[in-house]
Write a structure and sequence with these properties.
Elements: H1 20-35, E1 46-47, H2 54-58, E2 66-69, H3 71-78, H4 82-85, H5 94-98, E3 113-120, E4 127-135, E5 146-153, E6 158-166, E7 180-182, E8 186-190, E9 194-202, E10 213-218, H6 222-226, H7 228-234, E11 243-247, E12 250-256, E13 266-273, E14 276-283, E15 292-297, E16 305-312, E17 320-325, H8 338-376, H9 382-386, E18 403-407, H10 414-430, E19 434-436, H11 442-448, H12 450-460, E20 463-467, H13 470-473, H14 487-504, E21 512-516, E22 533-536, H15 541-549, E23 554-555, E24 558-559, H16 574-591
Parallel strand pairs: 1-7, 18-19, 18-20, 20-21, 21-22
Antiparallel strand pairs: 2-6, 3-4, 4-7, 4-8, 5-6, 5-9, 9-10, 11-12, 12-15, 13-14, 13-16, 16-17, 23-24
Helix pairs in contact: 10-16, 11-12, 12-14
């Protein structure tokens, strides 16, 4: 049996309604599994998961002390299809399964501590492999029944998830908090890439927050894993980045250079065609801060196919092969009066230059004046929030800020709508984005219709950000006073269909993002959106910023600090302070039971 099957089976997330028999059986299984704790057994100082079954765990056999559970095993034991039952890595909280009166749910298992990564040396030299280790928290350890370890690429999709369960008869005490647990290996990770690992204790009570520990890390570089000589011989110019440009009967070929860490300065090119054999040796100076190099092939014949080999000038290098055909060259008509033509061209160029200056100067003056106006005045109204600058301190402003469409449900009441509006204003003012929000587009929505407007925003935006709440998962339980109202359910269904089509085509799903604030839970993310990246706000604000701008916040020996983009610093600006106040107000209403 494979220990790394479908990631859908590595977690317990029960979001699909089951028939009465399946629900009854599943409740019985969870009560036995969550409540059992009959005898205390000795455990090794470092405990690795065993290859055993869910049936062995339920029967409390001593050989099944700490086990890795697969989706196939759960399906076999429970007799329920896991395709619809386990749609996510995150288990559904106790109350949603067993009811608020279940004694198994009235406890607190705090987040694990001392989470560390151990890199493994495997036969696959092009990929990295890690094992996660951690210690359980002393608080609530007597109720601990296992762990869930998930791995997600920074700004991308879920990579893998492991469900690790204890023997049903095992009972832990405070002294067991000093033992170290480890996961199964997470293999085939890309080298020199950013990942986030999350360790969560099981089970998960619905009323508690911060029950997981997230740890961001970088996989090893080629040099760290394989050494200089191996990386040098394995490097080759990426064929996808080689560019060929024809200039008359000449052709310019541009290819990427090796990373400076490989210490490669000499390159070799060999091109041939009908009657042509060109050998070029290239030397790159260490002081030249360049990433690509171009060379010229002269006097080529139109219609002839040519091929080139490009490689580092070292022993046994990997070579990149390219082929191209020279197109026909149109003969340029000769002017009967070259001097007159040159004068006319100079005059035309002068007229164009003067015209461009006259057109651009007023616009640049207005833009500068408007930028200064917003930089030095305090935010006093909603109009100020919407007209935020596309600037982020510590990061150069993009030429075209990413467009972000914010989807939410107004069924959770005006307090939640206020949070969404303040959050959208904060993103636009301090996260260098252009936000589309229905509250700001009343006239366009009236012209196009709510659904027409939403469909266009989903299609044209660079990112679709869904704010998840109970009202978004529970249609027809309330009617918002403003905002998207009932149309949010249709929007979520449309977004889910778009994600499904994108996944079937093998496309990247990083366009779709789900977030939830502190007065909501991860369980309130609609099951149809479970493939989207998930962020808890404002705790994961730096990760959300990294996702939107595709920048790496951390790396070996370096860390990018973006002003006002952390849980501690965002409230230092007026827009952030207004957002903080709105979140606190919504949390108060939620605690008082005045929100869905």
């Amino acid at each position: 049996m494979s220990r790394h099957g479908n990631t859908d089976g590595f977690a317990i997330s029960l979001y699909i309604c089951l028939n009465d028999m399946a629900v009854s059986f599943l409740h019985t299984f969870l009560l036995i599994f969550l409540c059992c704790g009959l005898s205390e057994q000795k455990m090794d100082p470092v405990l690795s998961p065993q290859n055993c079954t869910l049936d062995c765990i339920l029967k409390g056999r001593p050989e099944c002390e700490f086990c890795f559970i697969t989706s196939k095993d759960i399906e076999t034991t429970l007799g329920i299809g896991t395709q619809s039952l386990f749609g996510s890595c995150v288990p559904r909280p106790c109350f949603s399964l067993l009811g608020s009166d279940s004694p198994a749910c009235h406890h607190f298992v705090k987040a694990p501590e001392s989470v560390q990564l151990v890199f493994l040396n495997t036969s696959n030299l092009d990929k990295d492999s890690v094992v996660v280790t951690w210690k359980p928290n002393e608080y609530g350890i007597e109720f601990l029944r296992g762990f869930q370890v998930s791995l997600q690429k920074l700004g991308g999709m879920l990579v893998d998830c492991q469900l690790l369960l204890f023997n049903a008869n095992l009972s832990l005490g405070a002294t067991d908090a000093q033992r170290v647990y480890r996961s199964d290996p997470f293999p085939s990770l890309e080298l020199d890439s950013q990942y986030v690992v999350k360790v969560m204790p099981l089970p998960v009570p619905e009323v508690w927050e911060s029950l997981h520990h997230s740890h961001q890390f970088s996989t090893r570089s080629c040099l760290e894993k394989m050494g200089l000589q191996k990386c040098r011989s394995d490097w080759q110019p990426n064929p996808k980045t080689v560019k060929v440009q024809q200039i008359g009967t000449d052709v310019s070929v541009t290819f990427e250079l090796a990373p400076t860490s490989l210490n490669i300065h000499d390159y070799f090119t060999f091109c041939e065609g009908r009657g042509l054999k060109n050998i070029t040796k290239i030397r790159v100076n260490d002081k030249e801060n360049v990433t690509h190099h171009s060379f010229i092939l002269s006097n080529l014949k139109p219609g002839v196919n040519y091929s080139c080999e490009i490689s580092a000038d070292i022993t046994d290098p990997l070579k990149t092969h390219i082929r191209f055909q020279v197109g026909k060259v149109n003969a340029e008509p000769q002017s009967s009066n070259p001097i007159l033509l040159a004068v006319l061209l100079a005059l035309a160029l002068l007229v164009l230059t003067v015209t461009a200056v006259l057109l651009l100067l007023p616009r640049a003056f207005r833009r500068t004046r408007k930028r200064r106006q917003y930089q030095f005045r305090d935010v006093q109204s909603e109009g100020d929030l919407k007209e935020g600058l596309f600037q982020v301190s510590g990061l150069s402003s993009p030429v075209s800020p990413p467009r972000v469409f914010v989807c939410y449900s107004s069924a959770d009441g005006p307090a939640h709508v206020a949070v969404v509006m303040r959050f959208a204003a904060f993103l636009q003012q301090h996260a260098s984005t252009r936000v589309s929000l229905d509250l700001w587009e009343t006239l366009r929505m009236a012209e196009e219709g709510p659904m027409g407007w939403m469909c266009r925003q989903i299609e044209e935006s660079d990112f679709v950000l869904v704010v998840c709440t109970r009202g978004l998962r529970a249609p027809n339980q309330g009617e918002g006073e403003a905002g998207q109202g009932d149309t949010s359910q249709a929007a979520v269904a449309h977004i889910g269909e778009e994600m499904g089509r994108a996944k079937s085509r093998g496309e990247d799903l990083s366009k779709y993002i789900t977030v939830f604030f502190e007065y909501s839970t991860e369980d309130e993310i609609p099951s149809i959106l479970r493939l989207a990246s998930q962020y808890r706000l404002m705790q994961d604000l730096p990760l959300l910023f990294s996702h939107l701008h595709k920048v790496v916040l951390q790396g070996p020996g370096r860390q990018l600090q973006v002003e006002n983009m952390s849980q501690e610093s965002y409230i230092k600006v007026p827009a952030g302070a207004l957002l903080y106040s709105a979140i606190q107000k919504a949390s108060w209403f939620c605690r008082k039971g005045q929100m869905l």
